[in-house]
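Suppose you are handed a protein chain with no further information: no name, no annotation, nothing but its sequence. What can you learn? This example shows the usual starting point.
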Amino acid sequence: MGAEEFGRLEERVEKLLAGYNELKMEKAELQGIQGRLEEELKRLRSEIERLQSERDEVCTRINSLLGKLEEIDVSV
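A reasonable first move is to predict its three-dimensional structure. Written in structure tokens, the prediction is:
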């Protein structure tokens, strides 16, 4: 193997290593983003659950009030 071929091989290996390191950093960045998005999803699911519970409570109270109003109409 001549010096020129060896030089090209070294250059290709260096490019491969640079690409590998770049991909490794990108992976770490994407994992960080994924972690933040998973936390946000967890928070939003909790918020949805809270709002659904609140909505159910409001519906129950409205139905109770409507029932009372119906009792008033009947007795008048």
